[in-house]
Write a structure and sequence with these properties.
Blueprint lengths: L5 E10 L5 E7 L10 E3 L28 H5 L3 H12 L7 H13 L2 H11 L3 E7 L5 H4 L21 E6 L15 E6 L10 H14 L5 E5 L4 H11 L3 E5 L2 E4 L2 E7 L7 E5 H6 L1
Parallel strand pairs: 1-4, 4-5, 6-7, 6-8
Antiparallel strand pairs: 1-2, 2-3, 9-10, 10-11
């Protein structure tokens, strides 16, 4: 059996006190590659409550010598949110994965650092790891596997082979496990005659799966849910989990769930995550 040699590199992302991140590429001994250390700011949010649109900014001097530098520097949170939502829902247009991959590549690598990695690998396979605290969800959620050097996706280049993975430090438990019965509020935001929403099947199916695992929950079902009835149910029941069974979609890169409207003149109303949280 032939064993393929691997040369390991880690892209280490660490948050700082200002809300930005420090990024550097380290070799297997933990030494940073020349020119790889950079500070990455957050893009301004369209609105203060649009925290789901938190993305790192690919600003100068990043990618200043690349043909698409101006396009990368012009990216805003709303555009990246639209791309991310389209990729996540499987509705990406032609060229979108490459554009997102170029953004990710220039954000943490760049042509010069990547050339150093390839040179040091000397034909061996490259083990490229994203090392980031698990709590930094704006970075952890990004599809780093799409990184594109301008010619190839790194994960699909003809040579050398590039293996990509996430490196997450385990957090030791500080106490004994807690045992409790969660309260789950099932919110059905559709009319009973809606054939596309099978609320009963979803609700009973979940209970059967939990019962098979000898797990129990304290549950309540809110049918024909409106914003007002949802707010009242949460106040009275104090659920641990709110499970929505309804229609939904994306609006300007923001996810929205559809509840029945309190206004008799409207059939329904869409609510974004901040609006639901306020309820």
């Amino acid at each position: 059996m032939t064993v393929t040699p691997l040369v390991r590199f880690a892209i280490v992302l660490v948050p700082d006190a200002t809300g930005a991140w420090t990024s550097e590429v380290r070799d297997a001994t933990g030494v940073a590659l020349p020119g790889s250390t950079r500070t990455i700011a957050r893009l301004p949010l369209p609105h203060d409550d649009d925290t789901l649109l938190t993305f790192p900014a690919c600003h100068a001097p990043l990618a200043v010598d690349r043909a698409d530098a101006a396009d990368l520097h012009a990216l805003d949170a709303r555009t990246l949110g639209h791309w991310y939502a389209s990729l996540a829902s499987g509705q990406a247009s032609d060229g979108m994965p490459r554009r997102f991959g170029r953004y990710l590549f220039e954000l943490v690598l760049g042509a010069s650092v990547w050339s150093t990695i390839v040179e040091r690998a000397d034909g061996a396979a490259i083990d490229l790891r994203i090392a980031c605290p698990s709590g930094e969800w704006p970075l952890m959620r990004l599809p780093w596997e799409l990184m594109h050097d301008g010619v190839h996706f790194l994960a699909a280049r003809p040579g050398p082979l590039v293996l990509m993975s996430r490196e997450i430090a385990a957090v030791a438990s500080s106490g004994m496990p807690r045992v409790f019965t969660p309260r789950v509020l099932f919110v059905v935001g559709a009319l009973q005659g809606d054939t596309e929403i099978r609320a009963g099947a979803e609700y009973l199916g979940l209970l059967r799966r939990l019962q098979a695992l000898d797990l129990t929950i304290d549950s309540r079902v809110l049918r024909d849910a409106t914003a007002e009835s949802l707010q009242q149910a949460v106040t009275e029941f104090r659920p641990s989990v709110v499970h929505f069974i309804c229609h939904g979609g994306f609006a300007d890169g923001r996810g929205a769930l559809r509840l029945l409207a309190s206004d008799p003149g409207l059939p329904f109303q869409d609510y974004t995550a901040p609006q639901l949280l306020a309820l």
